[in-house]
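Proteins fold reproducibly. Next comes a concrete instance:

***
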Amino acid sequence: MNQDNWLMSSTDDFKHAMRRLTSTVSLITTVENEGRYGMVMTAVCSLGVIPPSLLISVAHTASMHAPLLRVRRFAVNILSAEQAFLVEPFSGKVKGEGRFAFGEWTKGVYGLPQLVGAQATVFCDVGQTFEHSGHTVVIGTVAETVYENTIGPLLYENGKFARAQLLQ
């Protein structure tokens, strides 16, 4: 098998495997000179607790990529299952500031866009970054966290939205 065939097979197999990885859906937001930026993301991962930190991955082509790297602050708004309607506008169907016409938004820590009713919002300073595969991997150091008392996040599994079901 030549390298191109191996790469295609490996990529397809990887995509199929990742469809089995259920992820929580979040809206990542930042603000620069009063301009708000936001995008949908499932590439969010808790990294450590001392100091509290997390990891996100932002494509170089994302409209918030450059502003995020300039202001070096962002918020992770973890969506509730009832907020699935926000995914479409924040995944590129609506551009720029128009995305924030959907949902109820307030100014959070550092003036970052905070989604009212999100499961939780984690406000971060950019600690470190590195480049990989057309993305900037961002390690965020947590500045503040707010959360709801109930837990019911929006999940994404096998190309569809899902809800968590607790096992007894």
Summary: The helical segments are 3-18, 65-71, 87-93. The longest helix spans residues 3-18. The domain at 20-158 is CATH 2.30.110.10 (Pnp Oxidase; Chain A). The two ends are 47 Å apart (CA to CA).
